[in-house]
Amino acid sequence: MSADYTQIQTAMQWLFVELHDHFARTRDFGLLHEFISFLDGFERSELLKLLFWAALEERDWELAEKCAGDGFQIVTADYADSGSLHHVISMVGGRTDIVEWLLRHGAALEQPKACSGLTPLMSASLHGFLDTADTLIRAGAELNARTLIDEEMTPLMFSAIAGHESMATLLLDSGANPTLLSRSGLDAAQIAEMHDCESVAALIRKAISGWQSKKSGLSSF
């Protein structure tokens, strides 16, 4: 990271604190807009990013919408090429109110992290954010998406790694396919066993049996 880049970040952090404190007292959107309009390039995007995420964390939806109106890109990636939903899951505890707001305002439901292909539902499954995962699933998240590198993991496999039994139950009840295999040829139950998550492994094995029985029954017609 260059010295100039660091200095700009420091300056924008200072400006953000001053503007945020002033705005909290006055609700003066005009002053905020004036400062934002004066900036361009990285300085503008950095200040908008700081104001936007502070607004969401504080449930100041009006300010968040103003930031979007002034140019903050909700749809595109914003943090390390990972997207708005990933930031909520990794940095803001997967808060469902923020996830729902972002989805209503165009956040990309399936936006993967660069290179890895890790989707927001995979991140929620790994961290055990049950309500967040439920919100993403109800919004249409792909239950059987796979990572692009390493083991081609699914959301169910990530819940198995972390031993999140309730998460695995949610994914299975929502229609996740328990018979899918990783690149190494392991199903989610075997992955759970490898991580000493026996209860999750048993749950998934039962689902695999049911899935196979259903498939066998259909093939007999």
Features of the shown structure:
221 residues; mainly alpha; 12 helices; Serine Threonine Protein Phosphatase 5, Tetratricopeptide repeat; elongated; 63% helix
Structural notes for this entry:
This protein has 221 residues and is mainly α. The chain has a domain at 111-221: Serine Threonine Protein Phosphatase 5, Tetratricopeptide repeat, CATH 1.25.40.20. The protein has helices spanning 3-26, 29-38, 41-57, 61-69, 84-91, 96-104, 120-127, 130-138, 155-162, 165-173, 188-194, 198-219. Helix 8 (130-138) packs parallel to helix 10 (165-173) and helix 10 runs parallel beside helix 12 (198-219). The longest helix is centred in the first third of the chain and has 24 residues, at 3-26. The model has no long low-confidence stretch (mean pLDDT 89).
Layout of helices and strands, plus pairs?
Elements (H helix, E strand, L loop, with lengths): L2 H24 L2 H10 L2 H17 L3 H9 L14 H8 L4 H9 L15 H8 L2 H9 L16 H8 L2 H9 L14 H7 L3 H22 L2
Summary, kept brief:
The protein is mainly α.
Distance between the termini: 63 Å
Stretches where pLDDT is under 50 for at least 5 consecutive residues are none
Shape: elongated
CATH topology of the domain at 111-221, anyone? Serine Threonine Protein Phosphatase 5, Tetratricopeptide repeat
User: Number of helical segments?
Assistant: 12
Largest sheet: none
The topology string of helices and strands comes to HHHHHHHHHHHH
Number of strands: 0
For the residues shown, what is the average pLDDT?
89
Which structural class fits the helix and strand makeup?
A: mainly alpha
Residues in helix, %: 55-70%
